[in-house]
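Run: sequence + FE2/S2 (inorganic) cluster -> complex structure.
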Amino acid sequence: MSYEVYTCTLESQKEIAPNIVEAWVVNAELAAKAKPGQFLHIQCGDATSMPLRRPISICDVQGDRVCFIYEVKGRGTKSLQQQYGELDILGPVGNGFTVDNGKYKCPAVIGGGIGVYPMLFLTKQLKGAVAYIGFRNKDLVTLEDEFNKAADSVTLTTDDGSYGVAGFALEELKKDCETKQFDIIYACGPKGMLRAVKAFAEGAGIPCQLSLEERMGCGIGACLTCSCETTHEGTDKYKRVCRNGPVFWSEEVVL
Ligand SMILES: Cc1cc2nc3c(=O)[nH]c(=O)nc-3n(C[C@H](O)[C@H](O)[C@H](O)COP(=O)(O)OP(=O)(O)OC[C@H]3O[C@@H](n4cnc5c(N)ncnc54)[C@H](O)[C@@H]3O)c2cc1C
Ligand code: FES
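>> structure
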């Protein structure tokens, strides 16, 4: 797998919720290559003082423009928020979701927290997606209109019940399984949510793909910082999220 580093025009950055920034960059080649579930490894400031890039998922692509949405957390993302002009981006990195509209006629998409963002690009490429998006509270709700346009139906939940349905998105997906026959589930979100999605999907016999998040160093498979445990034997036991993922079939990974 070879990756390119692109110099992208940073078109805009806008805070769309407290500490949540939507950014658009322009680069025709990057946009043409991007697939749902892949991520961008972004130089967030001066490479001498901050040599490590930060991984952020691709949220949307429109023509030659690529969108990503990030939570401002620590040094890297704080510095990223201050950038303007151009951004140095390695990518698109990793193996994305399997999109097969011929095979999967009734896909469910579930995202929690910052895990909602990569699911928009996926939902837009699926036919007939049923989406479940969960946020901590009303203030953090983002992309509602975009999901409503992209999916057949959308259930929005908040943990504290301040907007949408109160509770966890997975509980709503489970309820709908009584009337809908999902033939694949795609998920991205906190580890606890992914663990619960994996257990449910495997129990119900529904194929499931999970997008994992691990701390990353190089982003190109060289440093092993991002290793995750899998169900494979021997030397395949640990895989690199950046190179072998970030999307895995649920049965492949130990969470
Ligand atoms: C494949 C992938 C896709 C991602 N996509 C997105 C996205 O679309 N939007 C988004 O907001 N974030 C995303 N992240 C998480 C994002 O990379 C981290 O929040 C970011 O690197 C933090 O950098 P920082 O320098 O601001 O914070 P740091 O100072 O490095 O850390 C601040 C806090 O964030 C935690 N943290 C750092 N890296 C990660 C990580 N990889 N996963 C979980 N916690 C972390 C640290 O433990 C610490 O508590 C993604 C991560 C991966 C691996
Ligand atoms: S981040 Fe270096 S191997 Fe994945």
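>> summary
The CA atoms of residues 134 and 206 lie 21 Å apart. Residues 216-219, 221-226, 240, 242 surround FE2/S2 (inorganic) cluster (ligand 2) (CB under 6 Å).
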